[in-house]
TrEMBL record, chain A:
E.C. number(s) listed in UniProt: 2.2.1.1
Keyword Transferase: yes
PANTHER family: TRANSKETOLASE N-TERMINAL SECTION-RELATED (PTHR47514)
Transketolase N-terminal domain residues: 27-281
CDD domains with a match to the protein in the record: TPP_TK
Protein's UniProt keywords contain Hydrolase: no
Family, per entry: Belongs to the transketolase family.
Source organism superkingdom: Bacteria
Protein name per Swiss-Prot or TrEMBL: Transketolase
Any GO molecular function: transketolase activity
A Pfam entry, by short name: Transketolase_N
Automatic annotation (TrEMBL), chain B:
One annotated GO molecular function: magnesium ion binding
EC identifiers of the protein: 2.2.1.1
Name of the protein described by the UniProt record: Transketolase
Alphabetized InterPro entries for the sequence: PDH/Transketolase, THDP-binding, Transketo_C/PFOR_II, Transketolase-like_Pyr-bd, Transketolase_C
Cofactor: thiamine diphosphate
Family (UniProt): Belongs to the transketolase family.
Signal peptide coordinates: none
Pfam families for the chain: Transket_pyr, Transketolase_C
Gene3D superfamilies registered for this protein in UniProt: 3.40.50.920, 3.40.50.970
């Protein structure tokens, strides 16, 4: 195992072509947020805070980084994006709709009887959903097997696993972190959403896991940490993690803000499961439109 | 310990190298490992994984013969089953090994959600089922089948001997879904090749006919049931043995047919009498509306003692001798 550099400030994307690319991703992120609101409104509540916080990262993935064919979600050459955190389902469905894997009109069926879009994301229900998340601490263990399998097949696709800061409480995540490093899984990128929120309160007050990056680094991972709500930081970081030469798995910790993009949700008491009043949905949509 | 052996030389627990075979028995060494090598040589999708127990589950045979087909995951059972799931998602056929206690008690959630819910072709091959070690409750999987029977999609196999294991391995791989097999390791007795028998996944097989007593057995208890039947024959008691290697799905048709005759019936299992073969048959009979007395022979509803296997098998009534005594006792009480 080679030594790893400490987390450095990410490279900035500068020229106009890159600025155009960033603008395209930012617009995708706002549409992903709007898609998430459409779903949450069906329920009148939900994991909307998390969906808004992860939208920028999902936009970088689904509008730029992931190799995928929207009309062939099981295409052998695709990058596999595994969502551990099943309750982020509406964010993933929002991104899959943005990528054209599922029709946007279907989003209004979210968590209703008979829908392909259940409240917790499951592979058996939804095209483009690779694993059944929800029981936390599983995703990275499965990602290891997928990454090993891809290597056996000489398939150069990447495996992404999106997990949360709270999920790091689960010991299985660290079993998996050790296994990934031991087997040199350089085709694996873990993305940890650090929104400092889990079911019972602030992650830092429930079971503090900081320093997260240093923990992964100590396990043998190449690690970076950026503002997860700034696509100009997320994009180059993910590009770098995909291209570094180290024979090691990679981890990007993204600092995100629960409810990002809708000010009254950003300022609301931070809750795992947010209530939104009926009249607030339109206000939220309007704010996103203004930012676009 | 309630029973203290006062003889000069006491039997020992012999935990790590325990072999179930007696000195005079025909045996095959590491039948699981050799069956996996044979299968892996024919099918490149077949892989082995272990959680630091390759040597103690006979997967070291595969590891040493085809090292590129084996993954050492380390002492991390959750990561083992998750990785097996991921490999199966990519089209491979993993056989993941550890001890039964760790696969079922420790990594249940991973087996359930990552493998069974996704209905992946992952085969768990797990050693030290029931009372096959004297090490104590940390290693004795006395309730693994009770834990697993409620898991949808999962096929559960408890083989009797080396013949069962050798014949089961390719069938487990060919089965399009998750399986759990209780592994007998080391020098494993060969018993069933003396009979007109082949292992068929999902099927119960009548190994030996008999008009007075029916022993319905699974796993290593089939060997003891056959020995008991031979001893009972000498005592003038005509005893049949029905071997049920696949516990889920249960071959209800065959079991119903054998229960249709008027015989004294016992179930024999290397497992607590709660949640295993006896319960599965009782479940079927009640559903059928059938009232039938069946005597369960199995492990008690308690954490077992540490000790030597022959001592413990006698203590808990699952040795051949105790099985014979049980049958004769039941017949006496019937006659009374």
């Amino acid at each position: 195992m080679s030594t790893h550099q400490p987390a450095a400030a990410p490279a900035r994307v500068a020229d106009s072509a890159d600025e155009h690319r960033l603008q395209r991703i930012r617009e995708a992120a706002q549409r992903i947020r709007a898609n998430a609101l459409v779903q949450a409104e069906v329920q009148g509540q939900g994991y909307i805070g998390q969906a808004l916080d992860i939208a920028d990262v999902l936009a970088v993935l689904y509008a730029d980084q992931l190799r995928l064919r929207p009309d062939d979600p099981t295409w052998e050459g695709r990058d596999r994006c595994l969502l551990s955190i099943g309750h982020y389902a509406l964010a993933l469905y929002a991104a899959l709709a943005e990528a054209g894997v599922i029709p946007r009109e279907e989003l209004t069926t979210y968590a209703t009887d008979g829908s392909r879009l259940p409240m917790s994301a499951m592979a058996s229900y939804t095209p483009g959903v690779e694993i059944s998340g929800g029981s936390l601490g599983h995703g990275l263990t499965i990602a290891n097997g997928v990454a090993l399998g891809l290597k056996r097949k000489s398939n150069d696709a990447f495996v992404y696993n999106i997990l949360s800061d709270g999920e790091l409480n689960e010991g299985s995540t660290w079993e998996a972190a050790a296994v990934a490093a031991h087997h040199g899984l350089d085709n694996l990128i873990a993305i940890v959403d650090f929104n400092n929120q889990q079911a019972d309160g602030k992650s830092s007050e429930m079971l503090g896991m900081e320093p997260i990056g240093a923990k992964f680094e100590a396990f043998g991972w190449v690690t970076r940490r950026v503002d997860g709500n700034n696509v100009a930081e997320v994009l180059p970081a993910l590009e770098e993690l995909r291209s570094v030469e180290d024979p090691a798995p990679r981890c990007l910790v993204v600092n995100t803000k629960l409810g990002k993009g809708v000010d009254f949700l950003e300022q609301r008491e931070k809750l795992h499961f947010m209530q939104v009043a009926p009249e607030e949905w339109k206000l939220a949509h309007d704010q996103l439109k203004e930012q676009a | 310990m309630s029973t203290v052996n006062q003889s000069p030389k006491r039997l020992t627990s012999d935990a790590m190298s325990a072999s179930l075979a007696r000195a005079d028995q025909r045996v095959t060494a590491a039948p699981l490992g050799h069956a996996l090598v044979a299968l892996a040589e024919q099918d490149e999708r077949v892989l082995g994984l272990s959680a630091d127990l390759a040597k103690y589950t006979d997967l070291h045979i595969l590891r040493d013969a085809l090292p590129e087909r084996f993954y050492q995951i380390g002492m991390a059972e959750q990561a083992l089953l998750g990785a097996a799931a991921g490999l199966a998602m990519e089209g491979f056929i993993p056989f993941a090994s550890t001890y039964s206690v760790f696969a079922t008690r420790r990594a249940y959630d991973f087996l359930c959600l990552d493998i069974a819910e996704a209905n992946l072709n992952v085969n768990m091959v797990c050693a030290l089922p029931g009372l096959t070690t004297g090490y104590g409750p940390s290693h004795q999987a006395t309730e693994d089948i009770a834990i697993l029977r409620g898991m949808p999609n999962l096929t559960i196999v408890d083989p009797a001997d080396a013949v069962d294991i050798e014949q089961a391995v390719p069938q487990l791989a060919a089965h399009d879904g998750p399986t759990y097999m209780r592994v007998l390791r080391g020098k494993v007795p060969r018993v069933l090749d003396e009979y007109d028998y082949t292992f068929e996944l999902g099927k119960a097989k009548l190994i030996r006919g008999g008009g007075e007593v029916l022993l319905i057995s699974t796993g290593l208890m089939t060997e003891r049931a056959l020995e008991a039947a031979a001893a009972l024959e000498e005592a003038g008691v005509d005893t049949a043995v029905l071997h049920v290697p696949t516990l889920k799905p249960l071959d209800e048709e065959t079991i119903r047919r054998e229960l249709g005759r008027d015989r004294l019936v016992l179930t024999c299992e290397n497992h607590t009498i709660i949640g295993g073969l006896f319960d599965a048959i009782a479940h079927m009979l009640v559903r059928d509306g059938t009232v039938r007395r069946i005597t369960p022979v199995g492990l008690p509803d308690e954490f077992l003692d540490a000790g030597a296997l022959p001592t413990l098998a006698d203590r808990y009534g699952v040795s051949t001798d105790k099985l014979v005594e049980r049958v004769l006792g039941l017949r006496r009480s019937q006659d009374a």
